[in-house]
Amino acid sequence: MTVQEIGRPRRRKEDARLLTGRTQWTDNLSRPGLLYVAFLRSPMAHARITGVDVSGARDLPGVVAAFSGQDFAAEQGSLPCAWPVSPDIVIPDHPPMAVSEVRYVGEAVACVIATDRYRAADALEAIEVDYEPLPAVLDMRQALTSDSPKVHEAGNKAFSVKINSGDIEAAFRDAPVVIDRTYVQQRLIPSAMEPRAVLADTDGDAFTLWSATQIPHVLRVMLAVVTGIPEHKIRVIAPDVGGGFGSKLQVTAEEVLCLLLARRLGRPVKWTESRSEGNLTVHHGRDQLQHIRLAAESDGRIRGLQVDLLADMGAYLMLVTPGVPMLGAAMFNAIYKMDAYEFGCTGVFTTKMPTDAYRGAGRPEATFGIERVMDELAVRLDLDPVEVRRRNWIRHDEFPYTTISGLTYDSGNYEAATDKALSLFGYDKLRAEQADRRDRGDPVQLGIGVSTYTEMCGLAPSRMLGEASYAAGGWEHGSVRMLPTGKVEVITGTSPHGQGHVTSWSQIVADALGVPFDDVTVLHGDTAIAHKGMDTYGSRSLVVGGIAVFKACEKVKDKARKLAAHMLECSPDDLEFQAGAFKVRGTDAQKTIQELAYAAFTAHDLPDGVEARLDSEATFDPENYSFPHGTHLCAVEVDTETGMAKIRSYVAVDDIGKVVNPLIVEGQLHGGIAQGIAQALFEEAVYDAEGNLLTTTMADYLLPSAADLPGFTLDRTESPATSNPLGVKGVGEAGTIASTPAVVNAIVDALRPRGVNDVQMPCTPERIWRALEDRAQEGARR
Amino acid sequence: MPRITITVDGTTYEEDVEPRLLLVHLLRERLGKTGTPIGCDTSNCGACTVMLDGKSAKSCSVLAVQADGSDVVTIEGLGTNGSMHPMQRAFHEEHALQCGYCTPGMVMAAIDLLRDDPEPSEETIRHGLEGNLCRCTGYCNIVRAVRRGAQDMGRAVSAS
């Protein structure tokens, strides 16, 4: 009797290496004759470079070379933006090393290559750069005024897009209720625990680049495009990668320059960032100003929603910078039905580090906006926040449902997830306690936050990406090969960096081929091994890449069936596949998949049209996005005297369809929820009035520790996806998307009796205390 | 250049080091002990935590010369006879790691906190690990793993 692997909480195959230090982080790797690269970075937010003198550095012991941006001007190309979201988008030239102008603090202006990293760092001090300061551009609204200094000659507007569906004017005309709010999505620093690192080597003709990247395949194409080195001469390897969260979904200046330095010097070079360098120069996340208007009937039913975003691009457009806010375009309407929707977004240049994908990318921002506004609607109508959502959400019997923004949600059950969450949370009891504390005037008030989210992930149907002007497809590739001894080697185009693909893909293959879980190995992250792939981001790996592996298994079985029929002298239709063997119906005759693998290896007696070796490959291009959903509830105790907010309990009921490995899913949700809470309570990238980043270290940028976070209570409902044969949905970003509004809604809920209806994130004790003080003083003035 | 003598994972090394060389760089770049990673430059993240003479220490905050004469145990030397330490096993069983970058330091810090309290409460564990950051797990399963590791280590002690 074979145990079903899909659905089992398998412990991970990845762990043993990671737990014993036998790791392959990029910074662990070396090559004979390795040199170390260090970059000199701009201390100015905006300046003209009038001179760079690297000669002082060149003379120091251990220094092999030193270069300015000018030294690479002819070959370094421009860092790519793959998502021109509008026809008239401004994509400024983005030299990997600045040549004539710097536009954010941290931009590379020169580099040193030395025999060890200490000497490389020392030599940076001997480089002289002359800057002619230019005005910093820091505030998006000011940046769009006509008298603002310009970040780029073409101006400070990167693009402006407006999307309409339904009659928005009619929806707002004579609407009984209009909610009008502006929210700030603060800038975040993704902070994967492994800093970025790049190692490049060449044999004089071809190049190998190891990088702490999420996207070895995309990176290879882009390196070829940017540098002109032919694509077939570049091999990219993502060895062990220590987290990404979108921050390693990038084509970076350092990757391009290390490749070019290896070419220039004919020697291997390595660069590893320090954390403070990383905080300055790993792309940031979020940073939006959201103006949201919602029109509703007096019973709470939504008539229309109008969203106007300003999205801070930073100084340049990087790989998917402009696409991030646009991913929110179809998500502000969320799980709700409405008659009209208008989405406008303007991308704005500032003299800050560019923004780009960070866990959720556009969907957390949208979910925050709508879920905050839904709470305001509930308050206006004196309805429970759950009830106002219930009156608007898509009912389970309405799926598949095409939303006002044009997406078709395939499956879901918001009622079931919400009911389960309410009961686990003890919602009514907590509301009673809240009322009691309010009545008593308890200095510690209780707030309850609701977040009923969905999101679009599993990027993505290639056709839809084409419609959205994205420069690549969204398919994924998998190969499955039975080895002569009956073991299975799987090659996936996804590039895991903590997600456990080796384990989950092994479970999928074990079920599909009827082989033991331990007999499967999974290779990834090397363009010479995984020859096709679109990598890992956007909660796509399982729902696109895992399905490609599953489909490759189906093809392997088709081939095995032909071979089995030939060997057993029967028709393929007489065979049934069971527990890893093809059996002739009604007899004992059978061939195991391992026997067939061996027969296909010897190839002594293959039927016509069947090639040697039992293997196959498949690409999968999904027909639709994946739409996980769920209900998150958060109880927060807010000390009104100190402003301290403490999460007392957190319940999440998520529906991600069928689950391959519940342990891994739980881990993804835990980590995702923690990151969303971190945005709500702790994290913010802060620039001063001159454009200096103040949060350059982990001492200044507050990542939550174990002591700052509560435990989470998780449960699931299961509405299988209809867009893939395993019924699975993405889960990598769901927790982050859901949790931020749950926490902030809870804090605001606690403070409502004191007249507070918003606290800007991160909701630090000081901000909460000031919000209370401001209302108290207003009250006193009245 | 000062010469130091240092024992790492049971092997004694004599090395000439620049006075400014950090212990973590000695481990990683001179001794090939790359199992101990570096996550920050302000001693906030704890990824580089090792045992220095039996107590946990952030090896980015110790100069190699300060470790002269010391006995260092890294994640690579924690297991015995090819089998993992009970705390490493507990991290595996409880799915307390994802990308694994913080894991060496987290395991070391976890073992260290049990020296003070062999049966820690959840709160003690959470505060005891305050100096070690993880971006993947939300800490839930790390807390579970430390509890399980503590129980298994307790059992191992009482059995011996």
Automatic annotation (TrEMBL), chain A:
| Keyword annotations of the record | Molybdenum, Oxidoreductase
Per its UniProt record, what InterPro entries does this chain match?
Ald_Oxase/Xan_DH_a/b, Ald_Oxase/Xan_DH_a/b_sf, Ald_Oxase/xanthine_DH-like, AldOxase/xan_DH_MoCoBD1, AldOxase/xan_DH_MoCoBD2, AldOxase/xan_DH_Mopterin-bd_sf
Q: Describe the location of the Aldehyde oxidase/xanthine dehydrogenase a/b hammerhead domain by residue ranges.
A: 20-135
Looking at the record's lineage, which domain of life comes first? Bacteria
Family annotation (SMART domains): Ald_Xan_dh_C
Q: Which Pfam families match?
A: Ald_Xan_dh_C, MoCoBD_1, MoCoBD_2
Official protein name in the record: Molybdopterin-dependent oxidoreductase
Which lineage is the organism of this entry classified under, starting from the top rank? Bacteria, Bacillati, Actinomycetota, Actinomycetes, Streptosporangiales
TrEMBL record, chain B:
In which organism is this protein found? Nonomuraea antimicrobica
Give the Gene3D superfamilies listed for this entry.
Answer: 3.10.20.30, [2Fe-2S]-binding domain (1.10.150.120)
- UniProt name for this protein: (2Fe-2S)-binding protein
Q: Name one Pfam family in it.
A: Fer2
> Can you give the residue ranges of the 2Fe-2S ferredoxin-type domain?
2-78
Q: Which UniProt keywords apply?
A: 2Fe-2S, Iron, Iron-sulfur, Metal-binding, Oxidoreductase
Q: Is Membrane set as a keyword in this record?
A: no
Q: Mind telling me which SUPFAM superfamilies this protein's record contains? A: 2Fe-2S ferredoxin-like (SSF54292), CO dehydrogenase ISP C-domain like (SSF47741)
Q: Which InterPro entries does this one have?
A: 2Fe-2S-bd (IPR002888), 2Fe-2S-bd_dom_sf (IPR036884), 2Fe-2S_ferredoxin-like_sf (IPR036010), 2Fe-2S_ferredoxin-type (IPR001041), Beta-grasp_dom_sf (IPR012675), Diverse_Oxidoreductases (IPR051452)
Q: Does the keyword Acetylation apply?
A: no
